[in-house]
Amino acid sequence: MALYVQKFGGTSVGSVERIQAVAERVAGFRAAGHQVVVVVSAMSGETNRLVDLANAVQAEPDERELDVLLASGEQVSVALTSMALLERGVAARSYLADQVSIHTNGHHTRSRIEKIDTERLREDLEAGRVPVVAGFQGVDAQGNITTLGRGGSDTTAVALAAALRADECQIYTDVDGVYTTDPRVVPSARRLDRITFEEMLEMASLGAKVLHPRSVEFAGKYGIPLRVLSSFEETGSGTLITTEESDAMEQPVVSGIAFARDEAKITIQGAPDVPGVASKMLGPVSAEGIEVDMIVQNVGAAGQTDFTFTVKRSDYADAMRLVRKVAAEMGAGEVTGDNRIVKVSAVGVGMRSHAGVAMRMFDALAAENINIQIISTSEIKISVVIDEKYLELAVRAIHQAFELSGSAEEEID
Ligand code: ASP
Ligand code: MG
Question: Maximum Cα–Cα distance for the chain, whole Å?
Fold first, then answer.
């Protein structure tokens, strides 16, 4: 007998039929003798609908009231899911965050879970009941409703699994696991049986939008085995995200290829090569809350140096304006930029024990005549910035170079 926290996302509870299917699945786990805590998101499209309503009423919706509004989506789905379980003779009870309670810090629309009371949930589990908990919401020290940021139900599920010391946290979604890359770009991409937290975190934050990045961080920190599965399939073991690496023999050098489409870069030429320049250039940018990703500074010559950094495409215009101002003040040269770039990354813990990984990636790009504009590396990742028009080609070439495809016959050239 195991204790599972099972989270069902918006599409998995998107209609009465889907909610019935969730209840069927949970009933099956109960019948097999397992204990289950269910976490659900709002029905698909509902949170967006509520955001639109808020925007129609107030130009910049008050964040406290926005949280009250958005939390209502999950109130509907917990009640309906609980009813569907009761209809099948499975004892169940729905809970909102303040009934559990799920305590958060007070940041509206992006709060963090600080503590979860488990007493009530434990009582239910011992009495053979299935608690059905609203994802995405919490309650702050003053009793205000807060939300965890879009996609935050994953994090609710992992936090509950950590608090209850569950055997596994299962995230049911509309894909059957984590893939070596986006199958829409590489049709022969393969589902990974397992991946480490570190790798998943890179994949998630690089745009493989399967899991809320904070939920992966949380699961890694507390060592909660996390599994991504499809709620649309009867069977299948999905992808297990764990702390354990495979045996060195089987460990692939690269586990997956991630990419981010919406990138932009800014270059400052002829900046004075003196202490404090980087901080002066980037200070105003980060003060605006703009996230700077890659930063490259050239070797200086004749007292001057060049400087390039990347930001999200949506922050490009603001960052450009700020940097032009500082560059003029410090007497730097031209500031140029490009918002038609993308970032492609090879991710794998196997890189730690293998040499030549970067060369394999660069060779694959060279063979396709793709120019690399920026390179950055970490212990488990190699990222390159390239022109956006080569994104698909680059991902396919690198995916092939590391032999990540399912089977040779499926390969599409
Ligand atoms: N319902 C929320 C959203 O749409 C939370 C979630 O789905 O995880 O962002
Ligand atoms: Mg989601």
Answer: 79
Residue where a domain stops, chosen among 140, 174, 208: 174
C-beta of 136 in contact with ligand 1 (< 6 A): yes
Contact 12, 231 (CB under 8 A): yes
Query: Of 256, 210, 195, whose CA–CA distance to 405 is shortest?
Result: 256
Which ligand does the CA of 42 lie closest to?
1
Q: Residue of the nearest CA to atom 9 in ligand 1?
A: 150
Residue 148: CATH number of its domain = 3.40.1160.10
Average pLDDT, the chain: 93
pTM of the model: 0.86
Residue 205 in any domain: the answer is no
- The enclosing domain of 345 has a CATH number of 3.30.2130.10
Report the number of distinct structural domains present in the chain: 2
Strands 239-242 and 102-104: unpaired
- Which residue among 44, 47, 145 is best mutated to probe the pocket of ligand 1, counting the most ligand atoms within 8 A of its Cβ? 47
b (16+ CB within 10 A) / e for 132-146: bbbbbbbbbeeebbb
Q: What is the pLDDT of residues 260-272, one digit of tens each?
A: 999 999 999 999 8
